[in-house]
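Model the whole thing, not chain by chain.
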Amino acid sequence: MAPNLSGHGNRPGDLVGTSMRWLITIWRNLFHKRAVDQILDEELRSYRQLLEDEKIAAGADSQTAQREAAIELGGIEVIKEQVRDIRRGAFLEGFWTELRQSIRALRRNPGMTAMCVLMLALGIGASTIIFSVFEAALLRPLPFKDANRLVELAETQFDLGMDEQNLSEADFWDLHDGTKSFQSVGAYNRFQTNLTGDGEPEKISVTQVTLGFFPTLGVDPIVGRNFSAAEGDAKVAILGNKFWKSRYGADANILGRVLRLEGNGYTVVGVLPRGEPWIDDQVYVPYGYHPAADRGNREFAAVGRLKKGVTPEAARKELQSLAAAMRAANPKEDKGIGFNIFPSRRWIAPQETSTALRILLAAVGLLVLIACGNVANLLLARGLARRREIALRSALGAARARLVRFVMLESLLLSALGAVLALALAAAAVRGIRTMEIPGIPRLDEVSLNPWVLCFSCGVALFTGLLCGLAPALHTPLQGVAAALREGDRQTGASRRQGRVRAMLVSAEVALAFVLLVSTGLVLRSFQGLLKEHRGFQTARRLMFSLSYPDSYRQNGRGKALVDSFLEELSANPAVVSSGAVSSRPVEGPDNGMNIDAVTHSHVSGPPPWASWRVVTPGYLRTVGLPLLRGRNFNSTDKPVWDEPGQPMLSHRTVMFSAALARLLFPNEDPIGKHTILWKGQFNRDAEVVGVVGDSLERGLDHGPALTVYLPYGRVAVPSEFVVETRGDPKTVFPDVRALIQRLDRDLPIEDVRSFDEVISHSISPQRINSIVLTTFGGFALLLATFGIYGVLAYLVRRRTAEIGLRMALGASEWAILKMIVAQGILPALLGITIGGAIACWLSRYLKSLLFGVQPIDLLTYAAVSAVLLVTAAFACFIPGYRAMRTDPAIALRLE
Amino acid sequence: MPIDNLYEPSPVANIALLQGTLDVLILKVLALQPMHGLGISRRIAQVTKGTFQVKPGSLFPALHRMEEAGWLAAEWGESESKRRAKFYRVTKAGVRKLKQETVEWRRISAAMAIALEIS
């Protein structure tokens, strides 16, 4: 061990005394500075006296003695500064002084200060906002105790190609009883039902949960209690937090209220806390153990809490042996099953969201860097003007480290002010974001400026502060102090070097702006492309809504009767052009599909194609504007392809095809009259194609034309999504629609009332948000880069006024001057564009998942961005160039 | 060894050693009697036979630092030449420090001597 040379060893008893003295000295050094300094002054004076005395004693005359003493003592101010630096609290003291000086300096320059603070606030604010969303959506842990021990359980049937499916009820209970890896497991099954007899009827989502479900998650109700062990199939309910607030206004006396779900009364016993996932459904009801549980239908999703110390691998292994036993015991239903578990973490957000948010975060990072570049440029320009001041300080004994600290402190102060402004900005934005709903981004209503986000903002502020100060700090003069003092503001070697640094900063800004603008351009082009996609549908003047049928509508044709009379009465309304119903709402509805093939001979190699199926009323296709291309539309003679219990089997089934499906199955043939196999490999129903309609983007604007088979509606197939084509604003028809429905069945909830345009618009809102955010960032980036170029040139022209005057006096034309100045600005911009182009080529592939119909390296976008940046740069150069051009040589030379 | 460069930027590794050296020398000369700054400087030169010429730029920071650390105490007094001067003396903590440092230095110099002799 190395010996402790500095020997700070203290006896324990001294510790208190030592630290007391430590505090006292700091106090004295900071607050009685003058007295402390006076003592030092006196001490140095006396030292000098003693030196003189010594010299005189050695035989020198008093003048020689004085001179020699002065020489031996050296620079008094330097010594003082060294002593001050070594004093305790010197750092703090220097800090306070410098802080005061910085504040003074910033106040002397209010315009520049405001500019810097604004730019930094913009950068820090934007990054805080994006990060707050990022944090809530992706980083925040799940709202469960020890969420890392929480896993999702799934069944696998690899021979059927299923690597993750729900569990059947009986399988769940086998697992529940058999496993030793889990502290507890719980299963749930979500279904939709109608809530009636309690204000407006409403279709709600209800989750049946086993009694172990909430204990597994570790969630306790915030009001009331959990389901008790005896309440396996009791008619009790726990409300989700959001539903409690939205429907019952967070009524504290909710306990004991009876909810009527499809006619059954459920007593409310509790309310859950806020949070996602699993506990954000509307209503929870208990689901008990049933000895004769179903084994074939896989309807239950399951969660489990691992015992402490059990690894997921160990649990997986145990479950595999359990699955083997189950396969052996139930060779039919459990053929080929296995189990898999997934960490609960993976729930948090879908991959696209995560990618999109990461890209936005990167984009905002670029913006921050550009803002830093600008602020650094402004500080550099001012630093040059302050060369004299800094040189003076260094001549007076300020160490270089201290000067650097001084410059850094100033930029940190700017970024701190920027951060304050940014947080105000972000706080307002966050309030807005919480009310938004963007598909795919979870927990938006929980976005907040929590400590993590604040830490991030502070980090960004610190980073920007240091980064902005870096270039000016590195340019504090070291040598040539005398020269700086003598020459002051005039152009020197150092300032030429600084000119190069500033040009480099401009290039960097332009390059960063280029990357950001290319991303913006690509995403905008994708969005435009998405909007321009040929939808097939006509979306204007279409009202959409869904009816939520109770179970009873499936019997005795009640549902069909309602749909028929509703559509018929609606057609009498003069504001209605046509109307129809479909089983799944276009673009945003769930996509039901089947394997399908031609009966005669298959033109498709490999597995039969997968087509979406939609049950439609005859009026539907016309109402959404799909043209009939061949054959005929459905009419009342067409019956559903499903058999109705108690009725004779259908001898003749009819279907209609979308053009793409017809082309695929019957290329170069007339599909009309051809037969097709529906649900090939499963039910194998034969049906005749009676009509072909135009293609549509049934499955979403970014999914391309859907292969769709349209099936006729009837007593066993009652579509619940309605479309009404109107003459005027579709929303104005809705009161009539509601009145009509209420007359037909007052307990029937009407859901999701929107115009078709709104449905389309909502379906692309993630893309729209990306476009808006990136466009905003791109715009700011352009603005900042322009400002940066302008700032550099304006300063340059001011500094070179005399030189320009001289040139003009010697016969340079105005045009030559303009060209000279513009070239000075355009060259770094060109360099920036080139570098930015290279970086963008390299980075844009990460954008791929956000793009639609455009390649990451899209020449048009790159060219457009280059043009925009060049034009802006030229514009930014022109104003200072023009000013230089108008320089009056006589005045300019006099300035010298 | 010229000691007047002690507080100029120098390789970091040496600072502790050199700083320690000056501290020990100051403690040692003050242990005999209280002295003012110039006296300390002259006495160090004398006892080290001129090897260490402590200049004010090194001396004063060291004295003030050691005073703050509580090893030295100072009071104003009168010099031989009847001048007002600040006299430093070693405190109890300073004495302890000196003992400790002396032990360390003996060990090091013994170790160095052996090391240098072997090679």
